[in-house]
Amino acid sequence: MKGISNTLRTLRYAALVGIQDFRAAYTWRTWLSGWLVRVLAQVVFFAFVGSLLRSHERTYYLLIGNTTMLASISALLVIS
């Protein structure tokens, strides 16, 4: 039982450190104006590239692939 409580306490402190680290790097304003706008612009850009190719399949591929890649990169950056 003591091992579980030590593990939970360690996870709690790790989460608190992660939150404080994230707050030191980003505020809501910087995150919304910088990160989110950039990500949305990148997805729209690749959707336009797909539409220039005049292929619905390639547009779908670029849109879904880019969105999936950005979501996974975002998750990995938050974890690190």
- Helical amount: over 70%
Tally of separate helices: 3
User: How many individual β-strands?
Assistant: 0
Q: What can be said about the biggest beta sheet?
A: none
Q: How large is the share of residues in beta strands?
A: under 5%
Whole-angstrom Rg: 19 Å
Low-confidence stretches: none
Give the terminus-to-terminus CA distance.
Answer: 29 Å
Q: Tell me the structural class.
A: mainly alpha
Helix-strand topology string: HHH
Mean pLDDT: 82
Task: Give the overall silhouette.
Answer: elongated
Protein described:
By secondary structure, the protein is mostly helical. The chain has one domain (2-79). It has helices spanning 2-25, 28-52, 56-79. α2 runs antiparallel to α3. It is elongated and about 60 Å long.
Provide keyphrases for this structure:
0% strand, single chain, 3 helices, 80 residues, mainly alpha
How are the SSEs ordered, and which strands pair?
Layout: H1 2-25, H2 28-52, H3 56-79
Q: Could you give a quick summary of the protein structure above?
A:
This protein is mainly α and about 80 residues long. The protein has one domain (about 1-80). The chain has 3 helices and no strands.
